[in-house]
Specification:
The protein has 127 residues and is an alpha+beta fold. Helix content is 38%, strand content 12%. It has a two-stranded antiparallel sheet with strand order 1-3.
Length: 127
């Protein structure tokens, strides 16, 4: 069993991975919240402190911090910190009325969305 820290990385998921995933909820971010989440990616990525620890710095811990920076209430229950689906559902409950619950296969959810709306004069979204 993995007991210490190891090198980690943040991956951009392949479309096939996303197609097999679930969309749990959505939340609208302010520009400042979006910048804070983007900063988290840099902090945990190769240019930052890119270590992984199953008990203290795993994907659920990353999502918890991203949720905090998104203005959501986060309750870090030790029982949930290795259970991504259960942790995500706890975010939904803790933020009832602040998030839009989706709970659909991601492929179906993304297919239901129209093209993105970009404000006139806005910079294009980064890829």
């Amino acid at each position: 069993m993995l007991t210490g820290s190891v090198g980690g990385r943040i991956d951009r998921p392949k479309p096939s991975y996303i197609d097999r995933s679930n969309a749990h909820f959505s939340v609208v971010l302010t520009d400042a919240q979006y910048a804070a989440v983007r900063s988290l990616i840099d902090e945990w990525g190769e240019a930052g402190d890119s270590h992984y620890n199953l008990n203290r710095r795993n994907c659920v811990h990353f999502v918890a911090e991203a949720a905090r920076r998104s203005g959501l209430t986060v309750v870090e229950d030790r029982k949930l910190m290795k259970k991504p689906r259960s942790f995500t559902q706890s975010l939904e409950r803790a933020n009832a009325g602040r998030v839009t619950v989706i709970e659909l296969p991601a492929k179906a959810y993304f297919a239901s969305l129209g093209p993105p709306v970009v404000a006139v004069g806005a910079a294009p979204l980064p890829h």
